[in-house]
Specification:
Elements lengths: L1 H16 L25 E3 L5 H8 L5 E2 L7 E19 L6 E2 L1 H8 L11 E4 L1 H11 L7 E3 L5 H8 L2 E6 L7 E6 L17 E6 L17 E6 L2 E2 L3 H10 L9 H5 L3 E6 L26 H6 L4 E3 L10 H13 L4 E2 L1 E2 L2 H5 L2 E5 L2 E9 L15 E2 L4 H13 L3 E7 L12 H11 L3 E4 L8 E4 L2 E4 L4 E3 L5 E2 L5 E2 L4 E10 L2 E13 L3 E4 L2 H14 L24
Parallel strand pairs: 1-2, 1-3, 4-8, 5-6, 5-7, 10-12, 11-12, 11-23, 12-13, 13-14, 17-19, 19-20, 20-22
Antiparallel strand pairs: 3-7, 3-8, 3-9, 10-26, 15-18, 16-17, 21-22, 24-25, 26-27, 27-28
Helix pairs in contact: 11-12
């Protein structure tokens, strides 16, 4: 009993002396809300992005960083997004018109074949990076990088370098080559079938709006300029016997499918015009009114009246002809019912491009064909007047096409007195200066920002051959230029030289490859661009005697 009491007493003492275990109460707090703002938007633009798209990115107001790791958004080559069209280009006096994509990729891989053999391939650094993402790294030495603003000068310096450039960098001194039959400066261009295209996209598509493409088909305008049309003599006889629209059959697509088709019709329509007969004896020229059907068939949009023979059948025939143009809603220029109308420019806005036509007859010995204050005819070349008119129209945003009827000569030209007049129009600010008078095609030149073609040759006229004063006969009158000029978004992109050969005294046909190669080679040489010629081309003897023939 004592032992039990002692044990109990000890336990009580120990319990009283041992501190109790305290379980602290931990207060529960809500998780703290962060007050640190998220990192600001920062955009990284890939070095593959073309200059115009890079400039657009700058306008978004988002800081652009050089390190992609610091970016919250990225603009780079992508599977979708802005579709950027590029062009394979060469110096303008280049014979080749088209290459295949396999030939182009072979050149990229260092094994140039076909038309690309022997040609350096130039690109800006951004273009190289873009196509590297598409095709892989190019072979060593296959591509040379050059800054965008030096590409054209370097290519022209040796005439052997070609380049790939964004569509927006096309300019008149480049020739745009087709790839697999597709060219971005043509109306029938199909992007799906074209290999030179890249998509650029944003990692966050909600960041800013990207353009659908750098090429908008609705902003493209084509204007086809042509040479001499005179529906008379053997041409008219063929139309009578084989069909009125026959002369336009083989080049129908070239003319009809242009946005603006120009015809320089030198001859009045006259209901009393006699039945035509072949030959070169009749120089008082007229056309049956039924031949107007040919102009409608080829899609004529504007008529030039600077020609010498408009006055041949007298005042009534001229007024009747002007009425026919008005009734068919075809504007005319370079001639008219009086001097004021003859000088009046035709102003057009086509697909957003503002284009003006004006022209005159510069033949000093042909004053009797010129319009006066009271009589119809061609506009006289008053260069002071037209210089001011060109400048005034330019200030309104129009690109001026100025066409001439001028002295005639049967060689590559230009004829004497040509250069001063053509240069005056170019120096006044005309975008294009073109000769409609030439029965024998003439050379070309670039002058400042202007393209000059001193003479295109015949279009619809019967000169299969021509006898020179020394008795020799030439057939250079069969060869024809038809110039397709391309405008885009208020700029002139350049010209495609379409080439034809006259057949059956009436009907141009597209040249075959051999004919075209020879024709272009000669005329590029005559124009002073001989380095592209495979062999020297002999130049004909130049005569300075004016020939007063149609």
């Amino acid at each position: 009993m004592k032992k039990f009491l002692c044990f109990f007493l000890c336990i009580s003492i120990l319990t009283a002396c041992t501190p109790a275990t305290v379980v602290p109460t931990v207060p529960v707090y809500a998780s703290p809300t962060s007050t640190q703002p998220p990192p600001p938007d920062a955009l990284w633009v890939s070095p593959a992005v073309p200059d115009d798209l890079h400039e657009l990115a700058k306008s978004w107001g988002i800081p652009i960083v050089n390190d992609s790791a610091l970016a919250t958004q990225k603009l780079d080559v992508a599977d979708s997004g802005a579709l950027w069209i590029y062009a394979l280009v060469a110096p303008f006096p280049t014979i080749t018109d088209d290459v295949t994509s396999s030939e182009l990729i072979s050149a990229w891989k260092g094994a140039s074949t076909g038309p690309l053999a022997g040609h350096d391939l130039l690109m800006a650094e951004s273009t190289l990076r873009a196509f590297t993402a598409l095709w892989g790294e190019p072979a060593s030495g296959a591509v040379r990088t050059v800054s965008s603003d030096e590409l054209l000068d370097i290519a022209w310096s040796d005439m052997s370098s070609w380049a790939v450039i964004p569509f927006e960098e096309i300019q008149p001194k480049w020739k745009v080559l087709g790839v697999d039959g597709q060219s971005p400066i043509r109306k029938d261009f199909m992007a799906d079938a074209y290999p030179l295209k890249i998509n650029f996209g944003l990692s966050n598509s909600d960041l800013a709006p990207l353009p659908e493409s750098n090429r908008d088909a609705l902003k493209l305008t084509t204007v086809v300029l042509t040479g001499v049309t005179a529906l008379v003599r053997a041409t008219a006889f063929t139309m009578e016997t084989k069909g009125v629209t026959r002369p336009g059959d083989l080049i129908y697509d070239w003319l009809y499918n242009a946005d603006v088709t120009h015809i320089s019709n030198e001859v009045a329509f006259d209901k009393n015009c006699p039945m035509p007969t072949p030959g070169y004896t009749n120089f008082i020229l007229c056309s049956d009114p039924g031949y107007f059907e040919l102009l409608k068939y080829v899609g004529t949009d504007i008529v030039e009246l600077t020609g010498d023979h408009f006055t041949d059948r007298g005042v009534q025939a001229m007024f009747d002809t002007l009425d026919m143009y008005k009734q068919n809603n075809i504007p005319y220029y370079g001639g008219g019912a009086n001097e004021t109308e003859a000088r009046q420019p035709i102003l057009m806005e086509v697909n957003g491009n503002k284009i003006a036509f004006m022209g005159c007859n510069g033949k000093e010995s042909y004053t009797f064909v010129k319009a006066t204050a009271f009589s119809p005819g061609a506009a006289n070349c008053d260069y002071d007047f037209f210089t001011k008119q060109i400048q005034d129209v330019k200030t309104q945003g129009y690109m001026v096409i100025f066409t001439f009827q001028h002295e005639e000569c049967y060689h590559f030209g230009p004829c004497y007195q040509h250069e001063a007049g053509f240069h005056a129009a170019a120096d006044a600010g005309a975008t294009i200066v073109s000769g409609s008078q030439a029965h024998f095609p003439h050379l070309m030149e670039f002058r400042g920002d202007s393209f000059i073609h001193f003479g295109l040759g015949n279009l619809f006229f019967d000169q299969m051959t021509y006898e020179l004063p020394d008795g020799s006969v030439i057939d250079g009158t069969r060869r024809e230029f038809i110039d397709r000029h391309v405008f885009y978004d208020g700029r002139y992109l350049g010209v495609e030289l379409l080439t034809a050969m006259l057949e059956d005294f009436s009907r141009p046909r597209p040249m075959n490859e051999r004919e075209r190669t020879q024709f272009l080679s000669e005329y590029f040489a005559y124009s002073g661009w001989a380095p592209l010629l495979p062999t020297p081309i002999p130049q004909p003897t130049v005569t300075l005697t004016p020939i007063a023939l149609p």
